[in-house]
């Protein structure tokens, strides 16, 4: 088969880590007889520099015409002072919305080889953990009404959280179905003791319970969830939550896996076309040094093979290669604690050797 993949390398370490992931995908293609055509498009700060806009029309068109999209990261200090709607981050929200990617899957699991990296006490993680965060991605406060105005005490700014029945139902459906294929345990995270939008969220999630008798669904308030993630992460199987709570909790989850450099993500809508990206940022401080950890992006490529192209064996080949390389003791700088480490290109080569 031939697959056309749009590449959004972005800023900072984006180009380096995307190059690693495309090399790994090419190795998989060679082994299993697939052709991956890669077409780069501009996004983020580099797009601002070249065109004046963080998300050029051509990029949106290219992504919509592709079979799937692989993204590095966007943003950097150079563009931090631009107004909100011209910032590189705006491009990320724009492409998610343009592709109607309402689901964001963020798996967080503890690699046995990286147990020592986990900042939690050993007895807390002795049995490991394997969590799938299902984050709503095109609604909530990220996309709600916002603005500035003059209030009683001078200028005010506001953002609003709004969720419709349709938005809640479609993300809850993904979550229930994800839980059904895993351990059948779903925790819906909200702030229903305070927020009206959370109360609607909770009501609808439970209305749908009857269609999934094989899934046990419980609620958890987001403040408690933040605590439970570090107290007993193994209690979580699938988490479903709003855009902003999912953003925050997935960073917390990434830290207990040991390194934010390890976590991939898949953003999906109603078609097989998705957008795959590491959950970490553009790390401008280490950009261009060939020391970034490319594993989250490489694993994002594995998620693309599975979720967009239904290539399970090929996807597993990448995941297993990463496991082997870590188990053999190879580390990137972020995991080496000042000791010996492999560069971005070297660890990529090791992973490719194991495909
Ligand atoms: C993420 C990022 C983005 C988000 C930012 C860069 C807009 O933090 O993908 O988690 O908040 O969704
Ligand atoms: Mn985030």
Put the structure in a nutshell.
39% of the residues lie in helices and 20% in strands. By secondary structure, it is an alpha/beta fold. The model has no long low-confidence stretch (mean pLDDT 97).
Report on this structure.
- With 355 residues, the chain is α/β, with parallel strands linked by helices.
- The chain folds into 2 domains: 1-99 and 273-355, Isopropylmalate Dehydrogenase, CATH 3.40.718; 106-261, Isopropylmalate Dehydrogenase (3-Layer(aba) Sandwich), CATH 3.40.718.10.
- It contains 11 helices and 12 strands.
- The protein has helices at 14-32, 45-51, 57-65, 88-98, 165-181, 196-207, 222-231, 243-256, 295-307, 312-327, 344-353; strands at residues 2-10, 35-40, 68-73, 103-109, 130-136, 146-151, 154-159, 185-190, 216-221, 238-241, 264-268, 275-278.
- The strands form 2 sheets. The chain has a 10-stranded mixed sheet, sandwiched between helices.
- A hairpin with a 2-residue loop joins strand 6 (146-151) and strand 7.
- The longest helix has 19 residues, at 14-32.
- The structure holds 3-isopropylmalic acid and manganese (II) ion (MN).
- Manganese (II) ion (MN) is lined by residues 247, 251.
Report the count of strand segments. Answer: 12
Strand count, sense and closure of the main sheet? 10 strands, mixed
Overall pLDDT, averaged? Answer: 97
The rounded Rg comes to: 20 Å
Strand order of the largest sheet: 2-1-3-12-11-4-5-10-8-9
What shape does the CA trace take? globular
Total domains: 2
Kindly, what is the distance between the CA atoms of the first and last residues, rounded to a whole number of angstroms?
19 Å
Tally of individual helices:
11
- Sheet-strand content, in percent, reads 15-25%
Ligand names: 3-isopropylmalic acid, manganese (II) ion
By CATH, the superfamily of the largest domain comes out as Isopropylmalate Dehydrogenase
Summing up helix and strand content along with how strands pair, one would put the structural category as alpha/beta
* Top-tier CATH class of the largest domain: Alpha Beta
- What is the helix/strand order? EHEHHEHEEEEHEHEHEHEEHHH
Architecture per CATH nomenclature, i.e. the level-2 architecture of the largest domain: 3-Layer(aba) Sandwich
Q: Uncertain spans, ≥5 residues at pLDDT below 50? A: none
Per the CATH scheme, the topology name of the largest domain is Isopropylmalate Dehydrogenase
Helix content: 25-40%
């Amino acid at each position: 088969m031939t697959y056309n993949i749009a590449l959004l390398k972005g800023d900072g370490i984006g180009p380096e880590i995307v190059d690693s992931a495309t090399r790994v995908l090419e190795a998989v293609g060679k082994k299993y007889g697939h052709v991956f055509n890669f077409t780069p498009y501009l996004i983020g700060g580099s797009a601002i520099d070249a065109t004046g806009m963080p998300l050029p029309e051509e990029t949106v068109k290219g992504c919509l015409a592709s079979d799937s999209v692989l993204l590095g990261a966007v943003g950097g200090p150079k563009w931090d002072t631009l107004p909100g709607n011209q910032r590189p981050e705006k491009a990320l929200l724009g492409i998610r919305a343009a592709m109607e990617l309402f689901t964001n899957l963020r798996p967080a699991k503890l690699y046995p080889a990286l147990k020592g990296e986990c900042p939690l006490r050993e007895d807390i993680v002795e049995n490991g953990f394997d969590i799938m965060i299902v984050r709503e991605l095109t609604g909530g406060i990220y996309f709600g009404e916002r603005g500035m105005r003059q209030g009683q005490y001078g200028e005010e700014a506001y953002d609003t959280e709004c969720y419709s029945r349709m938005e809640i139902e479609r993300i809850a459906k993904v979550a229930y179905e994800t839980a059904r294929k895993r351990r059948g345990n779903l925790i819906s995270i909200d702030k229903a003791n305070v927020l009206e939008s959370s109360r609607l969220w909770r009501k609808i999630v439970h209305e749908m319970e009857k269609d999934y008798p094989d899934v046990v669904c419980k609620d958890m308030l987001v403040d408690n969830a933040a605590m439970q993630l570090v107290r007993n992460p193994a209690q979580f199987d699938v988490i479903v939550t709003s855009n902003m709570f999912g953003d925050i909790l997935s960073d917390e989850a990434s830290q207990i896996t040991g390194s934010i450099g390890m976590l991939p993500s898949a953003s999906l809508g109603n078609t097989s076309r998705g957008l795959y990206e590491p959950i970490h940022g553009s790390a401008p401080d280490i950009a261009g040094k060939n020391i970034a950890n490319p594993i989250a992006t490489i694993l994002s490529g594995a998620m693309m093979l599975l979720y967009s192209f239904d290539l399970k064996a090929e996807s597993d080949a990448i995941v297993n290669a990463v496991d082997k390389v870590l188990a053999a003791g190879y580390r990137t700088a972020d995991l080496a604690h000042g000791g010996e480490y492999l560069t971005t290109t070297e660890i990529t080569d090791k992973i490719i050797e194991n495909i």
